[in-house]
């Protein structure tokens, strides 16, 4: 086995171990033609709680261009809840109104409270993985990557023949620096439905060690080339948002469970 093949296998194992339950396939309802992947992101804000401790804000993030319609369906799979789900999908009305553009990054964020409220009304609770602040790439992480090509991985959901299957897939490809020398571009084909998904890469450390990072969000592109919105810009956009206020009926404690 070549070193590159071994690296691919190790990185894919690490990716699935940490993020398998981070992604959600969504689509325009009633036989619409828009399909995408979104994922959970937990932003860590230090020193904003009453005791100066850590505060987590949770969002769903995806490519903003995929959210511009009224009625959406989020496809579910049993592993996203520890209890039985009442259906294999969630319908969301006024879908586009919930998403907040993150500056000019091309990414939009949906505060997670609405998804928790939808699940609670159906009698279950989410059990998820999230892209955390420790995995989401910082500017210094992105600077460590060369001009490319750099091996990279998309964790997205394909569109099956019946348009509802939406199986999860790891797409192996490459990214290169964009023309501005700052952002990245994905350079190989991706299955339909994977735009909006997280893009990962491995930062090589000393010896054979590596650290998995999420570079950002796969955006719509032309042909096989897709811009990748870096997490440095996504994080800045999220932290510019006002604090989400919970609905009156929501419990005060953190009431979704992260897989351990």
Notes on the protein architecture:
It is a single chain. The chain is α+β, with helices and mostly antiparallel strands and 260 residues long. It has a single domain, classed as Thrombin, subunit H, CATH 2.40.10. Helices cover 18% and strands 34% of the residues. It contains 5 helices and 15 strands. The chain has a 7-stranded antiparallel β-sheet. A 6-stranded antiparallel beta barrel has the order 9-10-11-14-13-12. Strand 6 and strand 7 form a beta hairpin. The chain is globular, with a radius of gyration of 18 Å. The two termini are 32 Å apart. The N terminus and C terminus are likely disordered.
Per-chain topology:
Layout: H1 3-19, E1 23-28, E2 35-46, E3 54-63, E4 72-75, E5 89-92, H2 95-98, E6 100-101, E7 107-111, H3 113-122, E8 127-128, H4 139-144, E9 150-157, E10 168-177, E11 184-186, E12 198-204, E13 210-218, E14 226-230, H5 231-239, E15 257-258
Parallel strand pairs: 8-15
Antiparallel strand pairs: 1-2, 1-4, 2-3, 3-7, 4-5, 6-7, 9-10, 9-12, 10-11, 11-14, 12-13, 13-14
Secondary-structure class: alpha+beta
Parts with pLDDT < 50 across at least 5 consecutive residues: 1-6, 245-260
Radius of gyration: 18 Å
Question: Order of strands in the sheet with the most strands?
Answer: 5-4-1-2-3-7-6
Overall spatial form: globular
Fraction in helix? 10-25%
Kindly summarize this structure in a few lines.
The chain has helices spanning 3-19, 95-98, 113-122, 139-144, 231-239, and strands at 23-28, 35-46, 54-63, 72-75, 89-92, 100-101, 107-111, 127-128, 150-157, 168-177, 184-186, 198-204, 210-218, 226-230, 257-258.
């Amino acid at each position: 086995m070549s070193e590159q093949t071994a690296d691919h296998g190790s990185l894919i194992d690490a990716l699935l171990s940490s993020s398998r339950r981070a992604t959600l396939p969504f689509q325009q309802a009633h036989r619409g033609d828009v399909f995408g992947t979104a994922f959970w992101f937990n932003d860590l804000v230090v020193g904003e709680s009453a005791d100066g401790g850590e505060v987590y804000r949770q969002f769903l993030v995806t490519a903003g261009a995929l959210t511009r319609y009224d009625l959406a369906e989020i496809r579910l799979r049993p592993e996203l809840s520890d209890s039985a789900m009442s259906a294999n999908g969630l319908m969301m009305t006024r879908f586009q109104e919930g998403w907040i553009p993150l500056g000019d990054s091309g990414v939009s964020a949906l505060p997670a409270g609405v998804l928790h409220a939808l699940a609670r009304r159906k009698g279950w609770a989410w059990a998820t993985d999230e892209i955390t602040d420790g995995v989401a790439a910082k500017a210094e992480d992105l600077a460590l990557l060369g001009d490319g090509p750099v091996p990279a991985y998309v964790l997205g959901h394909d569109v099956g023949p019946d348009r509802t299957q939406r199986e999860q897939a790891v797409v192996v490809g490459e990214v290169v620096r964009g023309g501005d020398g700052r952002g990245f571009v994905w350079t190989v084909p991706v299955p339909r439905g994977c735009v909006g998904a997280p893009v990962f890469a491995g930062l090589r450390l000393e010896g054979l060690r590596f650290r998995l990072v999420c570079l950002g969000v796969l955006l719509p592109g032309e042909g096989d080339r897709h811009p990748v919105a870096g997490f440095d810009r996504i994080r800045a956009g999220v932290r510019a948002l006002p604090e989400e206020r919970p609905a009156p009926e929501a419990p005060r404690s953190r009431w979704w469970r992260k897989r351990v």
